[in-house]
Structure formats: C-alpha cells, structure tokens
Write a structure and sequence with these properties.
The complex is a heterodimer of chains A (482) and B (358).
Chain A lengths: L5 H17 L4 H17 L6 H20 L3 H38 L17 H16 L9 H9 L12 H9 L6 H34 L6 H32 L17 H7 L2 H15 L6 H19 L3 H19 L19 H22 L3 H11 L13 H20 L16 H17 L13
Helix pairs in contact in A: 1-2, 2-6, 3-4, 3-5, 3-6, 4-5, 6-7, 8-9, 8-16, 8-17, 9-14, 9-15, 11-12, 12-13, 13-14, 14-15
Chain B lengths: L1 H28 L20 H11 L6 E5 L8 H7 L5 E5 L5 H13 L6 E6 L24 H14 L3 H7 L26 H5 L8 H12 L11 E2 L6 H17 L2 E6 L6 E2 L2 H11 L3 E3 L5 H4 L12 H11 L18 H11 L1
Parallel strand pairs in B: 1-2, 1-3, 3-5, 4-6, 5-7
Helix pairs in contact in B: 4-9, 9-10
The chains are: A mainly alpha (482), B alpha/beta (358).
Chain lengths: 482, 358
C-alpha cells in the first residue's frame, strides 16, 4: 500500500479509530491491532511475502530468548551467526542471487568458459532490506547485552512489522522502538497535530516535488543519448530532488503517522542538501541507515582508529556496502565508492567533524564561504547521483561524457518545458521552506508557529492546494525497491 | 482527542468541498469519456490517449472486425479504409495508442482475442526510439484493460492525470466549453476508427499526395536553420541493445496470438528522422520471431534522407505510410525505396565494414 494512495487514505482512519476508540484500554490488543494492520498494509502488495516477515520475527524472537539464558560464549556466537546468516541469506537470495550469477558467468566467459545461465525470475520483496536490518539490530544488541530480550511476542512482532516504517524505514533500533510497545500510549493532542503537519509536508515532498521531478528525470535519463550536456545536467538535478523528495517525504509521512499512534521514530533526514562537506552530508542523509552501518559495521571494523590504511579500508568498506545495500547493480557500488572518495580526504585530514552544527545557525543568510561550501557539496552529490540513477555503468559513463562535451553550453531542450519551469519553481519553494526550517526536525515544524493561528491555517491550506493542483504522475516510492 | 478530531474536521472542510467540486465538474465534463454512453469516441483533447478511446470504442462496437492496426502515433496516418481496399474481405480497426510500447500492443491484441474477433490481418508499426522504452509496461495513460488495472483504478488515474497539468483550458473544459482545446476535425471514422479523417473517397484519393507546399518547405527550412532539423551522421547509426528478456517474451506472445489465428501479419520498423536502426542483437531477436514478415524502413534510406518527409522530427507524412504499404504488398509505389532494404544476412558484414571505416 502506498502512502500517497486512496487505499491508504481509507486504511489510516480505520486503523486510527480502532486503535484509539476500540483497543485503547488494552495494550496487548493495541499491539495486536498494529500487527494485524501492518500485515494488511504489507499484504496489500503481496500476501505471499508476509511469510518471510513472520519467519524473521519468530527466528529473532526465539534467538533473543535463547541468548538471554545462554552463558556459553560459543553457543551465543552460534546463535548470533544463525540470525545473521539466515536474515542476510534471505536478503542475498531475493536481492542478489541473479546479480552474483550474472557476474559469475561474465567472469568465466572472460576466461573463455561458457556457462549456461540459470537465472531465476525472483521478485524482490518490498522493504526486505529495511526489516532485515531492523531485526538484525535487535539480535546484535541482545547479544551484546545492550538490550534485554523481549518475552512479549506480540510487541516484538509489532516492532518488526510496524507499518509506517516497515517498507522504507526509518530503520529503527530495538533500543528506541521496542520499549515503546511495552508502555501504555495515551493520545496527545500536540503530538498528533505535529504528526499531521509532518504528513502534510511529506506528501508535498513526495507528490509535488518527487513525482514532478521524476517525469523529467526519467525523460532525460531514458533519452540521454539524444540530449545536450546542459539538459543532462538538468536531468541529474531533477533526479537529485526526486530522490530527496521521494525518500525524505516517505520518512516524514512514516514519522508523522507514527506520532498519530503515539510513537516517536528517529529523524531520518536533516536538510542534507545544505551540508558544507560530504561528512556533514552523510550525517544528514538517511540517518537511520548511516548510523546502522556506523554502529554495526564501521565501529566493529575498527572505525577511524588505527593507521591510515585501516581508515581507508574501513571507509571504503562502509561506503561500498552502503552502495550495495541499495541494489544489485554495479552503479550503486560506484556511487558508494565515489562517496568514499569524497569523504576520505576529510577523514585523513581530521576535518570530518568540522561542521557539526547547522549552516548559518541563527542567521538568515549564509556567508559567501558557507554558500560556496554548500554548493560544492551539492554539486558533488548531484554527480554521484548520476551513477545511482543510471541503468548500468555504460549508461553512466556516456551520460557523464556527454555532460563534459561542447553541448554543455547549448540551451537545454526536452519535452514539456513549461511544466518543467513550474517544477523548478516548486523546487525553489521547497529550498526556501527547508532553509527557513533547517534547525527543526522537518521544514514546516515551527513555521508560523508564533504567528496568529489563522496565518498558520492559511499556509497549511495553501500547501494542500499546491498538493492537489501540482500532483505529479503516480510513482512508487523509489526506496521500496531497496 | 475530541479537539483534535474537531480541528481536523474544520481544516478538512475547504479541501473536501474543493474535492467534491472537482469530482462533480470532472464527472460532468467527462473529458476521457469514462462515464459517457456515447460510442463514437473522438480524440478531442490533447491529454487523451487515443488507445484508451479506441478500446472504449471497440468494446461498444458491433462491427465484425477481422483486421487490426497497432502502433504509436506514427501509425495514425496508415488509413484503415485504404487497407480495406488492399486486403480482400478485410474489415480493419485502427488501434493506435500514443507513445505505444510493445506491451501495449500485446495487451491490445489480447483484448481483441478475448472479444472473440477473428484476427485475419494485422499491421504493427514498431519504432526504434520508443517501442522498447517502457520495459514490460504499457503506457500508463491507456485504457484500464490495457494497463491491467480495475475500472475504478483506471478512472482514478484519468482523474489524477487531468488535474496533474491543470491549465486555463482545462478549467474551461470543466465549465462546459467542451471543445475549447479540442480538435473537432479529429473525429475518428465511426467504422474503421481512422483518426483525423473520415473514410471518404476524397481522403483516400489524396492519400498518396506528396505534400510539398511552400509553407511546409519554408517551415522546415526555417527549422533547419535553427538546428531543429540537424545534420545526420553519414554512417549508419545503431541504437543500443534495448529489447529486454521480458519484452522478448512479449514479442513471442504476440507471435503466439498470430499463430493461433493464422494471422497474415506485417511488422514494420518505421523510418525515423534520426536514421537509427535497431542494434544487431535486437534485429536478430525480431527476425527470429517474425521472420520474413519483418519490414525494416529505418536507417539511412530514401525516405529518411529527405527531411521534407518529416513534418517534425518524430513523425512522417501520411504518403509515406501509403508508400510503405504499397511497397510491402509489391504494388506500384509513388516513392522509390531502392535503398531501404539492408538484407539482414549482410548486416554483420556492413557493420564490420563501417567499423573499419571509422
């Protein structure tokens, strides 16, 4: 079920009413309702793959309980690795089987050996990368004794399949989300209003920014061989805002929806395109995934401790794995590698934690230096997104090659230019609001909050109108495929 | 909770009222003919998909069609009424769709098959630049049966698409000035579903007329100066491999339907201004499936060399379609296509020679 669908517009109020009016006196019943609603939400896409979630739930629940009473270190390790291998095994089969097979065949062909391919028509279960990481974090934290394993199967099931963030995150840690299922939730007016506001903002980013940008990004990337270099630059910029609007919009709707039910999820995006360097960018983009990799991969590998070689190795490992997490294609790996290359000089010169605060904090405008830093980081990001969006490496190479050709100075040319101008105007509107609200969890959280109520209402109504009138073509959320 | 629900309700009043207004006015204007009982669907607005309207028309038709035309906007100028005169005992239905991908053609053939029409003759136009761009998916704006959605979902998609590009003209449509942006002359023929013209003798007689009016020539010359009509590469250019595994399956399914009906079919690769041809790999796929029924007019040839055959960079003039059909049927053609055929067997040799020259 998509957040921007009529199905969800009907689904959400029904679950909300049942949650707060029918099951509100019984915590177990409320959790059970969340599990049932989440299964319906997921099953709306494909019921068959619910079995994978249910299996993962039972596996990690059982392993967690076994770990609690197990003191033998060897057995504990075996239990941990069972969880890791099975969970990552599912991910590997469903997401990476054909990729590895194709590359295996290509490698043998290179040495003159012909192998008959036996690729499978595997459907990628929506959200598998997200809930796999979520359940893994639980088992690892229990193994490390950072978290008390749960005895409550319903609460644990709800934690694994909590529908607002089930298919595209944010990837929640058990330490943050699981305890919230143990506590009685009471309806809080301010929290609910804030949730609605965040949903509204998320919808704007998804259906207005992302879906409109998608039309032009798709057009330009799909016909890149016939486009001017200047058009290709514009295509990359459209994609840059498409993926931001799409993914951060989804996160906002997920967080806002959770707040309607009394849950607090972690912030997943913090105006990443206002970052002054790549290190800051990665602290602000897809925060839940970056911190997951930091805590469960980077730090166990040694992090930034050790010699230069260790730092280089660990940086590349985390970025390459992050790229590969996004999909079984070399384009994602190169995207990860590019970001590693961007990041490494900052790390090696100890400048990776230089920009921890917000750009131009307490000021209306940035300094010239800050502006240049932001634009440079943005440019590097746009360049990397080309590899992320390209169909394959050859496509990416030709795309970049055409950008750096004489046609870079030609006037951009593609279909439906007038609508593209409207989209560009909407992007500037997004940038303006994001700039004004960059110190908050989401852009419009405190916008007009100190003004008269009527101004606030008018602004929200205006946003609703913009959503209704500038709604783009229906697109699935990009991150569903990861 | 009470305060929250009250606030939400109050806030929702304006959007709900506007929503109701938009639905009612849309229902009343019915720009996609989704609620109309009319069976003479004309292409009236630029945002409509002709494939959608044709499907609606076919579903309501009581004509005994036995022959069909499929393809993108390039096939619109292939006159069904002309084909009726060329194919004995045929009754053609024109079933083009805007930006038609191969999946749309297959899904339309399946609809025809499911409606128990006999499929005696079929002509399909395939485009190097578009037919294989959407993977296994038909055009999103096509009929709900073609995109394989529910009727309700199809109507919602149309409603969304209508409001997506809201403009002053659309507001006028909603207010009841139905033909304000329409093209009243774009009536489809009630029988053959030919577009933009009715099957009158006059139209068929003028079909082969080569339109070289001064206005067309001066317009094209002017656009050449601006670089719109650009200089093409003298060496044959090939598109990258684009037929995916899924699309190959679709092509085979099309062939299966032909086999089932013992269809007399013709697959035409259209002549385009950019003069690109399918890659060798894609040509092999097409040739293996359709064999000698594949007619390739793409690439560098007499049609594509002459820029005046192209009123814009994406479409060719109506007489080209007539000439193509005449040529296929081995009848006299008003156009010399001596260089149009690159014998498939020689393709590899030619490609290698060109590579050496490069």
């Amino acid at each position: 079920m998509l957040f921007n669908s009529l199905d969800f517009a009907v689904f959400l109020p029904i679950v909300f009413v049942l949650y707060w009016f029918v099951t509100k006196h019984n915590l177990k019943l409320q959790n059970a309702l969340i599990v049932a609603a989440s299964y319906v939400f997921y099953g709306w896409w494909d019921w068959r793959f619910l079995s994978l979630i249910i299996f993962s739930t039972f596996l990690d629940y059982s392993i967690g309980r076994r770990l609690k009473n197990e003191e033998n270190q060897k057995t504990r390790k075996t239990l941990l690795w069972t969880s890791i291998i099975v969970n990552l095994g599912f991910l590997g089969v469903f997401k990476y089987y054909n990729f590895f097979l194709d590359n295996f065949i290509a490698a043998f062909s290179f040495f003159g050996q012909d192998i008959q391919p036996n690729s499978l028509n595997i459907i990628l279960p929506v959200g598998i990368s997200f809930y796999t990481f979520q359940t893994l974090s639980y088992t690892i934290d229990v193994y490390k004794k950072k978290l008390e394993p749960t005895e409550d199967l319903v609460a644990f099931s709800a934690f694994v399949c909590f529908y607002p963030q089930l298919v595209a995150g944010p990837i929640e840690r058990a330490t943050n989300l699981l305890p919230q299922f143990y506590k009685k939730r009471t309806f809080e007016y301010d929290k609910a209003v804030d949730g609605m506001r965040q949903i509204l903002w998320g919808l704007f980013k998804k259906v207005v920014i992302a879906d409109n940008c998608a039309e032009f990004a798709n057009q330009i990337f799909n016909n890149s061989a016939d486009m001017h270099g200047s058009t290709l630059v514009l295509g990359a910029i459209f994609f840059t805002f498409q993926i931001y609007g799409d993914f951060s919009g989804y996160s906002d709707i997920a967080i806002g929806t959770s707040r309607l039910f009394g849950f607090d999820l972690k912030q997943n995006f913090a105006t990443p395109y206002f970052s002054r360097d790549i290190a800051e960018y990665w602290r602000r983009w897809h925060i839940s995934l970056s911190t997951w990799f930091r805590d469960y991969l980077y730090i166990p590998l040694g992090g930034s401790r050790g010699g230069t070689w260790m730092k280089v190795r660990n940086t590349f490992v985390i970025f390459l794995v992050s790229g590969f997490w996004h999909g079984a294609n070399w384009t994602f790996v190169i995207w990860g590698a590019l970001n590693a290359v961007y990041f490494l000089p900052l790390l090696l010169t100890n400048n990776n934690r230089k920009n921890l605060g917000i750009v131009a904090e307490g000021k209306i405008l940035p300094t010239f230096r800050e502006l240049m830093a932001v634009l440079t980081t943005f440019g590097l990001t746009v360049f990397a997104w080309i590899f992320f969006r390209a169909e394959n490496l050859n496509h990416a190479y030709n795309y970049v090659r055409r950008i750096f050709s004489e046609s870079i100075i030609a006037f951009p040319e593609f279909s439906n230019m007038s609508r593209a101008l409207t989209t560009i105007f909407l992007i500037f509107f997004l940038i303006l609001l994001e700039w004004l609200g960059r110190q908050n969890n989401y852009a419009i959280q405190r916008l007009f909050i100190n003004s008269k109520r009527v101004y606030r209402i008018v602004f929200y109504q205006f946003l609703v109108m913009v959503i209704l009138f500038f709604i783009g073509g229906e697109q699935e959320f990009i991150y569903f495929q990861f | 909770m009470k305060a929250f629900l009250q606030g939400l309700l109050k806030f929702s009043i304006i959007p709900i009222l506007l929503g109701i207004l938009s639905v009612c006015s849309y229902y009343n204007a019915d720009p996609y003919f989704d609620f109309s009982s009319d069976n003479h669907y004309s292409w009236t607005y630029s945002f409509q998909n002709i494939g959608d309207l044709s499907t609606k028309k076919l579903l309501k038709s009581n004509q005994n069609y036995n022959s069909f035309i499929f393809g993108s906007s390039r096939v619109v100028d292939l006159y069904a009424c002309y084909l009726n005169s060329k194919f004995p005992n045929s009754s053609f239905f024109h079933y083009a769709g805007w930006s038609e991908p191969i999946a749309g053609i297959k899904n339309k053939l399946e609809i025809v098959d499911s409606l128990n029409y006999s499929i005696k003759n079929v002509i399909i136009y395939i485009d190097v630049d578009y037919s294989f761009k959407l993977g296994n998916f038909p055009n999103y704006s096509d009929h709900y049966l073609v995109v394989k959605k529910s009727k309700r979902r199809g109507r919602i998609i149309h409603y969304q698409r209508f409001w997506q590009n809201i403009s002053y003209d659309k507001i006028k449509i909603l207010l009841g000035f139905k033909r304000v942006k329409g093209h009243p002359y774009r009536n489809s023929d009630p029988t053959t579903n030919d577009h933009d013209h009715l099957c009158k003798d006059f139209n068929v007689r003028s079909y082969s007329k080569i339109n070289r009016s001064d206005s067309i020539i001066s317009r094209i010359d002017r656009l050449t100066e601006t670089g719109f009509y650009y200089e093409r590469n003298k060496l044959q250019q090939y598109a990258k491999d684009q037929i995916s595994k899924g699309e190959e399956v679709i092509l085979n399914e099309i062939k299966e339907i032909f086999d089932k009906h013992s269809t007399n079919f013709y697959i035409v690769i259209t002549p385009l201004y950019d003069q690109r041809k399918f890659s060798q790999k894609d040509q092999v796929i097409l040739k293996n499936i359709f064999g000698s029924r594949l007619y390739d007019f793409s690439g560098i040839n007499d049609i594509t060399n002459d820029k005046y055959n192209f009123p814009d960079r994406k479409h060719f003039q109506p007489y080209i379609s007539k000439a193509i059909i005449d040529s296929i049927l081995n009848k006299d053609s008003s156009i010399d296509f001596q260089s149009r055929f690159v014998p498939f067997e020689n393709l590899e040799k030619i490609t290698k020679t060109e590579d050496k020259e490069n």
